[in-house]
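Our working data are protein records whose layout never changes between entries. The record below serves as our worked example for the rest of this section:
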Amino acid sequence: MKLNFIVKKSAILMATFLCSLMMAQSGFASSGSKKEAKLESATPSYLFVQFAAEATIEASNTVANGYQITLKHVSPYVTYFSERPERKTGSISIEKFLVLWNGQGSNSFRENAPNAALHAVQGGMAVGEQTINYAIEISNPHYDKATKTLTYTVKPLEGTALSIPEATQIHNVTLFIDGDPCLACW
């Protein structure tokens, strides 16, 4: 009789433990599903990439501690991609990309200029090439389709020392620009 009581008590404890474990797993699964659903419903954030054969960087006459970069022979298209989990990609014309500066509100590039990473090669074979990388903020774009030039006002990001010699010539230019979360808004 005592053995039956121990077996029943053990069975009840085991059943309680298993039910608790199943409920906990189902709770975790449902919270994971909610989290996944939230990620899927979130608006993706896009990053942009621009390419140019060459560029010049000069001190700005209008912006303190600023520069002007003129991208020459710039690609007429801007590549974009979203962060995971969406992983959307594509390309748009420069004209369509520049619409981001026409918007209003805290998410427009006009009122909240994007950060960018400038990667290029400075110098040539005769003087030795050097890769340069700058973390910058870009604003005030101006595109000249006829000459295939795109000019930005550039400021170093806070805490970044940006010392560019006057009239720096660079080539193989890539500009990585942080994004706008609303491609559908274009």
Remarks:
- The two ends are 79 Å apart (CA to CA).
